[in-house]
Amino acid sequence: MVASQEKDAPLVSVAVISFNQKDYIGQCLDSALRQTYRPLEIIVADDGSCDGTRDIILRYAANYPGIVVPVLASTNAGVTANSTAAHQACTGKYIAWLGGDDIMVDDKIARQVAVMEADPLIAVCYHDLDVFDSATDASLRRFSEMNRPREGGIETAIRYGTFNGGSATMVRRACAPECYDARILVASDWLYWVECLQGGGRIVYINAVLGRYRRHARNVTADTSAARLLLLDHLMTCAIILVRMPCYAGEVSHTTARLLVSLARRTKTGRMRLMLLAISTMVAAIFISAVKVLLRLRG
């Protein structure tokens, strides 16, 4: 049964990011098609897959014309460029992001839209995820067990980073930037979430498991060397935020210190130097925060 087919119900775009996921993309698209919410468009951005994923996407597009919309790159351009292609193809009031190997619970979209429609100041809405093993389908843990859920404004998003799972996140398209920042090669989603909040909106959390996040050998976060690259991407993001939004220098310094500690733990050479840099950065964060408090008290 379709739960919401009212004429004034806002269109939702499901933005699916795909690359060489022939074993998973069908299950992903099926979960999007099973959503109880309508109207819905499913934008499938494929980054030059060469394993048969494109053929599967085209078959779904033929079977569900006007609903499944393929955006196919001729060559592999990377996750940031592919995410931009997906974003720019979306026409809905809201965009629900989904990895091509992840799964939505049937009423996910309906529940997120209800929350966002109730408060126009909500720019980003996310929920908990069931993290599961791809080979056995066994649940491993909840996403919230490793990433404490948080709510708030842009300061929260900058200070604590990507506490929201990408495949759990819905954004208000009017609040989102025009594209992902091409300078960040892989982990460009954090800056995207931050920019969604730049206009004064809030990020809110639904305390329910409304999706499944697949763990398998090809996950970027499963590779130690790739994890270091993600940390470097996040440090690049800190630099970009500091230049664009210097008023959040305290929050940026706090996050930078935490990232440097994580990078030091994954680095054999120069570890002590990174730790000392992290300590000095944290001291700077504390100093900046103290100055802000004093200025507010005087004001």
UniProtKB/TrEMBL annotation:
<dbReference type="Pfam" id="PF00535">
    <property type="entry name" value="Glycos_transf_2"/>
</dbReference>
<keyword id="KW-0472">Membrane</keyword>
<dbReference type="InterPro" id="IPR001173">
    <property type="entry name" value="Glyco_trans_2-like"/>
</dbReference>
<feature type="transmembrane region" description="Helical">
    <location>
        <begin position="274"/>
        <end position="295"/>
    </location>
</feature>
<dbReference type="InterPro" id="IPR029044">
    <property type="entry name" value="Nucleotide-diphossugar_trans"/>
</dbReference>
<dbReference type="GO" id="GO:0016758">
    <property type="term" value="F:hexosyltransferase activity"/>
</dbReference>
<keyword id="KW-0808">Transferase</keyword>
<feature type="domain" description="Glycosyltransferase 2-like">
    <location>
        <begin position="13"/>
        <end position="167"/>
    </location>
</feature>
<keyword id="KW-0812">Transmembrane</keyword>
<keyword id="KW-1133">Transmembrane helix</keyword>
<protein>
    <submittedName>
        <fullName>Glycosyl transferase 2 family protein</fullName>
    </submittedName>
</protein>
